[in-house]
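Technical note accompanying the year-one report. For the benefit of new consortium partners, we illustrate the data format agreed upon in the data management plan: each record pairs a sequence with a structure-token string. No post-processing was applied to the example shown here.
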Amino acid sequence: MLTAYEDGAAEAEDDDLLARATQLGRVLFSQDVDLLIVTDQWLTTGREFAGLVYAHQLGVTIGQAIRDLMLIALVLNPEDMRNRIEFLPF
């Protein structure tokens, strides 16, 4: 796990954050609806990205998000998540 803060990208624009995660081969987890919109635009235009897992801030508890993220990590490999948006909770 790597946070945007640890990577020095906490203040990055959504496009830059998605590009950085893709460069690193990392799936993003976010509760930012703006990032979801940017990712959907990338998906619609065919721009490659490593994957996004999105949860609305009021739609999932921390515990449920952790359980669902662990399930994704166990079941899906990076190629399965490529150019894919998953929504939590399941």
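Partners are asked to follow this layout when depositing records. The radius of gyration is 12 Å.
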